[in-house]
Design a protein that fits this description.
By secondary structure, the chain is an alpha/beta fold. It is built from 17 helices and 13 strands. Helix content is 49%, strand content 17%. A seven-stranded mixed β-sheet has the order 3-4-5-6-2-1-7.
């Protein structure tokens, strides 16, 4: 009898797992139909892959079924052999010809698909880096059968051919546009699949539960849902925690990638422009003893040991009858309200006045640092004077003597990155599109928990779980629309 029971138990488990497997396959097929909507031209494309400026070397990239045959029509090897007879991932010396005309002496790299960036046959012509010679070679390639590539089309083909997912494709342009060490490391981490792995892990968990619910609803005789809502609640709560962790780093990630929006404010002649010049390392702003010299905003981007600051120097905030200066003051207040960080410069050699009180009132709910400028002079305003009105981090500096800048840098690190940014195990969400999809997935998962609390039918769980699954799929390109794909790659540079 015991043996018969074990056989029956195994049979039930087999049926249960089979149902879950078939549902998982069905869901994946449903998503693959969306992936199959992506349109891709399969003709051969070409573009200049290096900057259009005079340099030591230039690269013309060709990808597609006819990449090798087109190259053979214009490329003459020194040994008179053909590129089509050469093994993949080899380099060959020769000349590019247009008929009888020799255009340039080159090295040609052959990479046959699928072991190439696009998973197509790819040829790269390494030529001399003159603008004219690169254009001549590209024109010749196009004349003999290729067409000009669209912006980002090589990476788009890599995505559509399954070599990389959409989050990895987006990280390619982030690597190119990286402006500091943190942004570069984060982009490289995403390119290697750090975001993809996290998203796929979470999606796998969600998909498993969708499959279980659908299997149970389809075959209630063999698969029971008794006690399942409580179990699902724990699983969904765990997934929510993982998404919350990703979202918690998203603001840091955005700042790592784009820089911290920083506004310098203060009353006239407090030393704002001198501070900007000190940070930039050159005379960008006009500095005079005349109050109201700065009447409009001045924007600069600086790198403080890996921390990118998008700095805006503003007009001194004060009551004024000057029409132009008044516009500058209003702009200063507007930028202050939208900034990630406000640096409030106080002239400690003068007493606080109504203009200082107005500024401090504006800063009470903002991320702000108070710089006690002109610390090289005898102080009239002290830390205690300011503390009566505003409780923010204060640093004594002298913009003129360039002292206190190290303390400012460390304070910014502490405020925004808890003192240090590490990339050992952390995954940073740096893309606003990814953040939005995570927020939508989170909303759907909270609806699942609410449905459990409200004792709703299991169908409701499945609907919201599927919504979360699809939103997460948007991040890696499993369920995005054709128009969005085109928009993403349109932002890429030509030749990538």
């Amino acid at each position: 009898m015991a043996g018969s029971y074990e056989v029956l138990r195994r049979a039930v488990l087999y049926i249960m797992n089979f149902h879950k497997f078939t549902v998982e396959v069905f869901v994946e097929l449903r998503m693959s139909r969306k992936r199959g909507r992506y349109s891709m031209k399969t003709d051969t494309i070409a573009a200049i892959a290096t900057a259009m400026t005079s340099s030591g070397i230039g690269i013309v990239r060709i990808s597609g079924d006819e990449a090798v045959s087109i190259t053979d029509r214009i490329f003459e090897m020194k040994n008179q052999k053909k590129l089509e007879d050469m093994p993949t991932h080899t380099i060959h010396y020769g000349h590019i010809h247009d008929g009888d005309e020799v255009i340039d002496e080159v090295m040609v790299l052959l990479m046959r698909g699928p072991k190439s960036y696009t998973r197509e046959d790819t040829v790269e012509i390494d030529c001399h880096g003159g603008v004219y010679v690169m254009k001549r070679i590209l024109e010749t390639v196009i004349q003999y059968g290729a067409r000009p590539a669209e912006p980002g089309e090589f990476t788009k083909r890599a995505f559509l051919n399954g070599r990389i997912d959409l989050s990895q494709a987006e990280s390619v342009i982030d690597v190119i546009n990286s402006k500091n060490e943190f942004a570069l490391k984060s982009s490289l981490s995403q390119l290697s699949g750090s975001v993809s792995e996290k998203i796929k892990e979470i999606r796998g968990t969600v998909l498993h539960e969708i499959a279980f619910i659908e299997s149970a609803l389809d075959d209630p005789e063999h698969i029971s849902l008794d006690g399942y809502p409580e179990k699902l609640s724990g699983i969904v709560s765990d997934v929510i925690k993982k998404i919350d962790k990703l979202l918690a780093n998203s603001d840091n990630g955005k700042m790592l990638k784009e820089g911290i929006s920083t506004v310098i404010v203060g009353k006239p002649n407090a030393g704002k422009s001198s501070l900007l010049n000190s940070l930039v390392g050159e005379e960008k702003a006009i500095v005079t003893d005349i109050a109201g010299t700065t009447r409009d905003v001045l924007e600069e981007q600086i790198n403080l040991n890996g921390i990118l600051l998008n700095i805006i120097d503003t007009a001194g905030i004060r009551d004024t009858e000057d029409v132009v200066e008044k516009i500058g003051v209003e702009r200063a207040k507007k930028y202050l309200n939208n900034a990630d960080l406000v640096i409030y410069v106080v002239d400690t050699s003068t007493a606080l006045d109504e203009n200082d009180h107005e500024i401090m009132e504006l800063l009470k709910d903002r991320h702000a640092i108070v710089l006690l400028n002109k610390s090289d002079l005898s102080p009239v305003t002290t830390v205690e004077d300011i503390r009566k009105h505003l409780d923010k981090k204060m640093i004594a500096i002298s913009a003129k003597e360039q002292t206190g800048m190290d303390d400012l840098e460390e304070t910014i690190k502490e405020m925004f990155f808890s003192g240090e940014v590490t990339f050992n195990d952390e995954v940073y969400i740096t893309n606003i599109r990814h953040k939005t999809s995570l927020q939508e997935a989170l909303r759907s998962l909270h609806l699942v928990l609410q449905s459990i609390v409200d004792d709703m039918p299991e169908d409701f769980y499945s609907i919201d779980l599927m919504n979360a699954y699809e939103e997460l799929g948007n991040i890696i390109g499993e369920s995005v629309e054709d128009d969005l794909v085109n928009e993403i790659f349109s932002k890429f540079c030509m030749g990538k």
